[in-house]
Predict the structure.
Amino acid sequence: MTTAAKVLPGYAELAVGGLRHLGHVLGLGPAFDASAEETVSVLFGGWGHRSTRGPAEPGLPSAPAPFEYSLVLSGDRVDVRLFYRPLAAAGPTTAEASWDEGRRTLAELERRGVAHLHRAKELSDLFRPRSARATFGMCLAASAGARGIARVKVYFDTFAAGTGHHRELIGEALNRLGHGPAWTWVREHDPAGVAALMPAIFALDLQESADARVKFYTTVHERSAAELAARASALSDAAGRTAADFVERMAVEGSAALAGDGLRPTLCWSMTSHRRDRPDDATLYLPSNLYTPSRGDITGRLRTALAPGLFRRVERLISQCAETAPGEGPENPFHWVGTKLLRDDSLTLYLSAAVVEAARSAFPAPAAAVPRTRSR
């Protein structure tokens, strides 16, 4: 007798379940739960039924899910966000397929009034994939809230024209958006960052706001908090101090963590229309569960960083994830932790779909708290 292959949930069902679990653990209320299905249905468009990234081995996951969650924590508030790469509706997902799916989703978000695409359209010809070396085509991100989708972002692939043109594309994109002077400033004041660009990512906030950001990412190769502070101080002395303090507070070994092997931190420069001559902020991202792998260590650091009520909610999530962590893996569920260096004191934590699904499976919400999913 043959055993039937296990039918995996589609990525949309996985994301809806993950959002609802986060909403339950973090106390975001029934309206958040009720909006999750509509949010994912719109964002994942015509490919949410898929349960693998590619056609090979259709009954087994061939790669991690193409989405992750982030929690933006500020005061007593939690903003839950989805970041994802759109997949083809069927068959292999090429950079061109992700580009086409992403554009369809953006058009729908524009129709619904939650994304403003004029800046993205100005850059469409630059970032349309046209090389076999294009990496991902397009990624998207959005907040999932009780009122639905908000704060949409698009991530363009700067390898769209091939691997040798990413700096040229970033410079041209910034010039078109009126931030050419800021690009000149970065090249003059952060040559190490320009030399170590994370070459495949250029991001836009799609809000109609003076605070809407243009962002690009660089790798941190500095080997101590003092070296990193000196680099970030090009923006301001306060930015340098915040960067060094963040490393000391969020890494078990403090500054010495930067001298270790493995995944490197990231420094993201961001520009807004508030000023055109230079970046007006930067965000530092640390590989959290590399620098702070144990449950006790990440809990202790977040206890000092968050308001007490918010900390207790996040602590519940950490507890669940630690108990379901693979035996050889870190107990800390957050693979990145980020903070802005100037404009606010929010903290952003990033966790994978697999981490949330393991916690959801082991600690299901009470049946009454889980809205029934409509069949399709």
User: Anything to note?
Assistant: The radius of gyration is 21 Å. The first helix runs from residue 11 to 25. Residues 47 and 89 are 4 Å apart (CA to CA).
